[in-house]
Amino acid sequence: MTEQSPPSWQDFEQRIRDAKNAQDLSGIEHALFGRKAGAMTLALTGLRDLQPEDRKAKAQELNTWKRSLETLITERTRELSTPSASQLQTDDAIDVTLDVPARERGHLHLIPEFIAQVEEVFGRMGFDVAQGPEVETEDYNFNLLNIPSTHPARDLQDTFWIKSKNPEERLLLRTQTSPMQVRYMQSHKPPLRVIAPGKTYRKDSDATHSPMFHQFEGLMIGKDVTLANMKAVMITAIRELTFSDAEFRFRTGFFPFVEPGLEVDMRWRGDEEKSREGKWLEVVGCGMVHPNVLKNCGIDPTKWQGFAFGFGVERMIMIKHQIPDLRALYAGDLRFLRQF
User: Fold this and answer.
1) Were both Cys, which of 138, 146, 204, 217 would link to 196 (CB 3.0–4.6 Å)?
2) Can you give the pLDDT at residue 293?
3) Domain with CATH 3.30.930.10 in the chain
4) CA pair distance 110, 241, nearest whole angstrom
């Protein structure tokens, strides 16, 4: 074997530090670690020719230099990829005198923005926020809410049913956020206050209905909670989320999970001819929680009582911003969204 002078690792170290660009650094790296003729590669291969007593010390020395040089190359690569201040002055100069139009600023969509306001308003009234699954079981969406098996809401033309491997557990896309009443009462002890915003699904579509829409469910349970408390919460929420002088009315309504039940309508504030439901638009269904629902959740209805409500998010936005067609909220038209 021809005797060769050992490579100077200090020399390679200096060459790496002096590299002017990525191309120079790549050449040095190849000279060091190239598969066939790299200086470090040849040095490591040559270890097999050494005597056993010398091999271990030499291997430790080479490994130390190898790690040191690799680290130095990595650091120098990072330095060369970051432009210096002088480079930015010449290569990326900005003329601050140019008349450039301001960039359009992004903003939240109307729906998540409104839901954030809902959480803030009800948070000030002491309500927690809970989230629940959009794919529900028949028990939570109907049975535990005191909805009879013959109720038309269970029909195929109203509900999106999902095929399940387990025929005993029927699944569906939830038709309301009301299942969260049951889920929350099962996992929390009264007294309690909670709202549950989220998506719901029904087979319905026109100017004021959508197959997918948003609701926020509310629930308040206590020993002395009355219908008067519910009306006070409804009035406060409607006025803070829409207009301080909002016009609304309470009228009787039927929901299997409340007794008595009420519906809240708000007066359309824009062009009445553009509202397909005339002067008034239903925005809330509410009422005192039915005793059967409390029993289903393990709460004694002789000791506790309360109210529940469900707001339609899109409908309140329609009235607040005088939007005649709910479908505009989902069209993704920037001309429409820029108005807000």
Assistant:
1) 217
2) 93
3) 110-337
4) 13
